[in-house]
């Protein structure tokens, strides 16, 4: 385990390796392995990792320096709502309620078994289906883009 602890692995990975070794060696007794050396080794602790967030200033700098304006809206939605990439890309205009300033997450864009992108009503978990509030600034941006989209069509 010392070699594993010396490697640059996350605590979660180290604990996973520990569990695999421990399980294999404890079952090894059935096959003639006399000693389970993992019995005396303490499992690595998986501590809570503090999540670092961008400040508003960092978000503004990022958005200003975005090389592709095609990516601006999906990134803005991810930052403003916490939606996953597939959820953002699977969002339909009909799922944005501009009057009540909410988005309904009901679909995602994902690859099928052949690697072809498809719009899917199946989200990652049952709690992924949700309705979320949108801040005033984001709703204004969405309204402007939607108005331009309607004019073009």
Automatic annotation (TrEMBL):
GO BP field: DNA integration; DNA recombination
Domain of life: Bacteria
Keywords from the UniProt entry: DNA recombination
Domain Tyr recombinase: 49-153
Pfam families to which the protein is assigned, alphabetical: Phage_integrase
Family annotation (InterPro entries): DNA_brk_join_enz, Integrase-like_cat_sf, Integrase_catalytic
UniProt keyword Ribosomal protein, yes or no: no
Gene Ontology terms, MF aspect: DNA binding
Protein name as it appears in the record: Site-specific integrase
Protein source organism: Oceanobacillus profundus
């Amino acid at each position: 385990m010392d070699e594993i602890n010396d490697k640059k692995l996350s605590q979660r990975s180290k604990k996973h390796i520990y569990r695999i070794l421990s399980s294999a060696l404890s079952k090894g007794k059935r096959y003639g392995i006399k000693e389970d050396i993992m019995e005396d080794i303490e499992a690595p602790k998986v501590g809570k990792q503090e999540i670092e967030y961008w400040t508003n200033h960092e978000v503004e700098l990022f958005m200003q320096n975005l090389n592709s304006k095609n990516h601006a809206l999906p990134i803005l939605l991810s930052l403003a709502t916490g939606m996953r990439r597939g959820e953002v890309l699977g969002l339909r205009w009909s799922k944005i309620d501009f009057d009540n300033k909410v988005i309904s997450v009901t679909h995602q864009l994902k690859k099928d078994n052949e690697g072809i992108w498809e719009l899917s009503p199946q989200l990652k978990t049952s709690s992924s289906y949700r309705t979320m509030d949108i801040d005033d600034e984001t709703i204004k941006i969405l309204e402007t883009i939607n108005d331009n989209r309607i004019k073009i069509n």
